[in-house]
C-alpha cells in the first residue's frame, strides 16, 4: 500500500520483493517511460529474449505450434529482483519504504473517507495474550492512499466490495489462476540464456485452462512453472501435483536432469482482464496494479500494465495534492492509456476457453489472426471460480505418482526452498467464518478440496478421536498465494495478514 502526503510508503514482506513471484518475461514499455535510461544502469534486467517457442504437449511428445507471442525486445527476469532494485531507486528519491509491516486495517474519517492504513499488532500469542515482544500497530495516515497489494489483496477486496467498485467498472467478477514455479540451476550445456518456451495441453485435461513455461535466465538458471485456472471442475485435482507431473514430461525432464532446484513458490494471478476491471477510485484513494487486475492473459504479462497504472495514479495523486483536482483523473487517463487499448484487444481470449480447450484455441486463433482484437462482441466469463467446482461424486480420484526426490518433490521439501517463515506463537491469519463447514460441507460434497488446491498443504484433514475427518490449518506453511481465499467452495476462508514480515522470502522469483 502507499499512503500519500509528500512521501509514499510501501508495506511488504521481510524485504522488498520477498513476496513477489512472477514468470517473468518482462515487457519494458512502462519502465521505458518511467526510467528512460535504465539500460545504462545496473538493473537486474540483463537477459533479452533470444528465442520464442510454443509447444502442444501430449504425455510423451512436444509438438511445435506457431508462437502466438511476440517477445522481441522483451527480457527474461526475476521480478523479485526487479522490485528490490526499484525499491532502492525509490529510496534514492526520498521515498520511505517500510518492509516488514503488514497493513491490516483501513482507516476512515467521520465521513467514511479513507485516510490511511493501520499495521497489525505484533507479539500477540495464539491465545490472544501479549508476549514480551508485543508492539502495538501504528496508524499511517495520508491525504490519498493507493492500494497496491497484488492479486486478491485483502484490503483492496474490502474496498472493492464495500464501494461496489466492480459494478461501477466493467461489471464482471474477477477470475483467477494459480501459478506454481521453481527456479533451477541446470547443466551448462542445456542452458540457453533468453530461451522462452510456453506450453499448453498435458498434464491438464481438455476442460481445465492453463499452461506452463520454461524461461532461461542467466547464471545457468531456469524458471519453470505451471499455471492452472482456478475455475477447474475436478475437486480431486491438485495443481501442485500437476506441476510435478509436468516436470516428468520427457522434453522437460531431460532439461532438468543433472540440475538443482533452488527456489519454490506459488501465487495467484488475475485473469479477468478487461471485463473485470473495477472502477479504481474511492473516496480518499485508488486501487492500482494487480489489486485492480490489469493482466493481459494472451501475453501472459501484467507487470508492464501494473506499473503503468501506478504511474497514472501517481500523476493523478500529484495533481490532487498540488492543484486540488479530483482522483477521477486516474480513471479518465486509464481509459485513454495503452493499458485500456491493450486489454480491450485481449478481452475475448480467456473467456473463449469456457467452451473447452479445442473451441478456446479456435476462438483465440480467430481473435488473433482475423479480428486482431477488433471483434464486434465481448465474451462473458463463466461462473466465479469457487462456484465452478463439481461435487466429488462426478469425478474419480486422481492417483498422482510419488515424488522421486530428484525432479519431483514432496511439499515439505518445496516449502523449505520458499524460505517461508511465520512466528509460530501468533493467532492464525487464516480463519474460518463458519468452523462447521469443512466437515459438514467440504468433505461430504467435495472430498475436502482445500487439502489439494493449496500448494503448501496448509489445509490438512486429520482423524479426531472418533476417527472422523477434522480440518487442521497449518498456517505457518502459508505462501500467501491466496488460492484458498478464491477457491473455497463456500467462501468460508478469510485470509488476513500475519505478523509483519511473515511469509515467503523469495530472492530469485
> Which consecutive residue ranges, at least 5 long each, have pLDDT under 50?
1-11
Strand order within the widest beta sheet? 6-5-16-17-18-15-19
Strand tally is 25
Helix content: 25-40%
* Class from secondary-structure proportions: alpha+beta
Enzyme class: oxidoreductase
GO molecular function: 4 iron, 4 sulfur cluster binding; electron-transferring-flavoprotein dehydrogenase activity; metal ion binding
Keywords: Electron transport, FAD, Flavoprotein, Iron, Iron-sulfur, Membrane, Metal-binding, Mitochondrion, Mitochondrion inner membrane, Oxidoreductase, Transit peptide, Transport, Ubiquinone
Family: Belongs to the ETF-QO/FixC family.
Molecular structure report:
With 509 residues, the protein is an alpha+beta fold. It is 26% helix and 23% strand. Strands 6-5-16-17-18-15-19 form a seven-stranded mixed β-sheet. Strands 1-14-21-20 form a four-stranded mixed β-sheet, with helices on both faces. Helix 7 (303-323) crosses helix 8 (328-336). It is globular, with a radius of gyration of 22 Å. The two termini are 21 Å apart. Residues 1-11 have low confidence and may be disordered. It catalyses: a ubiquinone + reduced [electron-transfer flavoprotein] = a ubiquinol + oxidized [electron-transfer flavoprotein] + H(+).
What is the topological layout?
Elements: E1 2-4, E2 9-11, E3 25-26, H1 29-34, E4 47-48, E5 51-57, E6 62-65, E7 75-76, H2 79-92, E8 96-98, E9 103-108, E10 114-119, E11 122-124, E12 130-135, E13 139-141, E14 144-147, H3 154-162, H4 165-168, E15 176-185, E16 195-201, E17 210-216, E18 221-229, H5 239-247, H6 250-256, E19 260-270, E20 281-282, E21 285-287, H7 303-323, H8 328-336, H9 338-345, H10 349-352, H11 357-371, H12 411-417, E22 430-432, H13 437-446, H14 450-453, E23 459-463, E24 469-473, H15 483-487, E25 493-495
Parallel strand pairs: 2-8, 5-16, 14-21
Antiparallel strand pairs: 1-14, 3-7, 4-7, 5-6, 9-10, 10-13, 11-12, 15-18, 15-19, 16-17, 17-18, 20-21, 22-25, 23-24
